[in-house]
Amino acid sequence: MAAKPHFYITTAISYPNGAPHIGHAYELIATDAIARFKRLDGFDVFFLTGTDEHGQKMLQTAAKEGVTARELADRNAAVFRRMATALNASNDDFIRTTEERHHRTCQEIWQRMQDKGDIYLAKYSGWYSVRDEAYYAESETTVGGDGVRRGPTGTPVEWVEEESYFFRLSAYQDRLLALYESQPDFISPEERRNEIVSFVKGGLKDLSVSRTAFDWGIPVPGDPKHVMYVWVDALTNYVTATGYPHETPRSHYWPADVHIIGKDIVRFHAVYWPAFLMSADWPLPKRVFGHGFLFNRGEKMSKSVGNVIDPFTLADHYGVDQLRYFFLREVPFGQDGNYSHEAIVNRINADLANDLGNLAQRSLSMIAKNLDGVVPAPGAFTQADSAILASAYALPEKAREAMKNLALHHVLAEIWRVVGDANRYFASEEPWVKRKSDPERFATILYVTAETLRAVGIMARPVIPGAASALLDLLGVAPESRGFAQVGEGDRIAPGAKLPGPAPIFPRYVEPE
Ligand code: ME8
């Protein structure tokens, strides 16, 4: 048997300077859905997430809370890990940048960049935003009415002057532009790509890549009074987790197939990261995808506005599958999105409880009540039967097409189009009438409906893994027959199988008293 093709996907690693918020949850859910999709489509997947624990922001927050940076990182990294479990994420590893394995890889990439002649010592003076952990040119900053100078993202900047190692980023401008040119989907969506191309065309300055003002970081090889700039350290996590360049059970996963990140950190992933890798002569990731931001009713979440909603509370309140479905269906992947109680409830009740849940419940109850819970043998298919089955069987191809652009919302729209068609089919075939008047037709309609639900259940697994598995259990689909390759005629539900009996998969959301 030929080895499965491999697929390596990552989220950004989060700053554990606080508990996770819904933006972190969103990124994890979307990345998880893509990872699950690829596994079900026959790929050998490695899915990585984790925490970015060094840097000045961590130190400052720790100082404010009266704990050490290590204590702050330990406390919150545990919460990020718990969130991955709570959201039913299928990550294969969880990396923390304070781990020993990561120190080694960081020192190795640094050494390689230095051996290349791309690292030199000089004096840095310029503007730094601790909140963004980013350096800004003076021309990118503005002084507001409050007298505070801010960077392009609106965060305050401070003047920094210290001895620093620099990375010769300026030498990589042409190679980066050639990369964007030859691999048009290296950065997507399109608008993010355009922003980056014009940023790089504007000229690149060498990048300060070490700090001496504090020691919460990875020491620079041979000069330990410097620690590496937190972004050199952070980006390198993606390599660390594979063990590359050393031969390990995972080293074949590097280079990554895609980094899923938010739109605010595309510059780090699409400019600095490939330049570091080019310098180190390590292969480049194939793709960087910058998703949009989530807003609570159009407002930016912030602790001071008091609208930060904890993902644990949301998942408890609405259900994990419900939350996953909502975010991935409601927000076109790559664009900004909003969430509100009403919008979530609307999706739960219309798409999940009504369209999918009711159809499953009604058809499976009829099989239970009238056919002793045994899958009937279908008669000859009518045109209507063949049409709905054909659209169900076309789902893997349609979904793969949409996934070329990581358009998760389109994948879901295709699946729910079939759910909608199946509901119309069921309503117009009127099995409740045929039960007495035409028992053979009754059996065929229920068979076709169950078979359509089987295809839908398999295809929905990446997004609603819990409920989709429950549905496939109710349909008697064997656990090893739940991949995309089984969506088709060859793996049809076997007539004669005894089903476990109907059970609700998606209850309606009812407002608490
Ligand atoms: O940026 N909506 O960490 P982070 C959607 N440690 N996504 C959001 C969001 C929102 N409201 N707010 C943040 C960092 N994100 C670095 C990354 S990677 C080598 C280092 C996204 O905790 C954000 O865009 O600030 C990023 O992809 C991720 O959450 C972690 O953000």
UniProtKB/TrEMBL annotation:
**Reactions mediated catalytically:** tRNA(Met) + L-methionine + ATP = L-methionyl-tRNA(Met) + AMP + diphosphate
- Residue ranges of the Methionyl/Leucyl tRNA synthetase domain? 8-141, 158-363
Some GO term, biological process aspect, for this entry: which one? methionyl-tRNA aminoacylation
Which key words tag this protein in UniProt?
Aminoacyl-tRNA synthetase, ATP-binding, Cytoplasm, Ligase, Nucleotide-binding, Protein biosynthesis
Domain Methionyl-tRNA synthetase anticodon-binding per the UniProt entry, residue ranges? 375-482
One short Pfam family name for this protein? tRNA-synt_1g
Instruction: Pinpoint motif 'HIGH' region by residue range.
Output: 14-24
Q: Carries keyword Endoplasmic reticulum? A: no
Family the UniProt entry places it in: Belongs to the class-I aminoacyl-tRNA synthetase family. MetG type 2B subfamily.
Q: Tell me the subunit arrangement.
A: Monomer.
Q: Which NCBIfam families match?
A: metG, PRK12267.1
Name of the protein in its database record: Methionine--tRNA ligase
